[in-house]
Amino acid sequence: MARSKMLVFSNPVAGQDTEFNEWYDNVHLGEVLAVPGIVAGERYGRVPAQLPGGDATGQSYLAVYELDADPDEVVKSFQEHAATGKVGLSPALDLTSLAVTVWRARQ
Predict the structure, then answer these.
(1) pLDDT tens, 22-54?
(2) Domains (range + CATH), the chain
(3) SS3 107
(4) For labeling, which of 6, 26, 55, 61 is most exposed (least CB within 10 Å)?
């Protein structure tokens, strides 16, 4: 099975960059990596646009997670972990700008 990626575009609540990054790096990444089917994760900070449209998403941070199982099953498992509190959210996360998408490699 081709690997898939889950992309999470996010922003901190205004003025809470430090709290957001500490939570994401020290708590949230580990919680997400404990979800079955999510085998790797990496975070990125946006670089000011060098190309037209480069700032189109409006988010400052991107997390890329690698999935090694059926994306539908991984998403279901992720939702179950979130519903039971195994994957939590921080008050420093701006939920109004959060965007999560799953991408499958084209064959």
Answers:
(1) 999 999 999 999 999 999 999 999 887 677 766
(2) 4-47+58-104 (3.30.70.100)
(3) coil
(4) 26
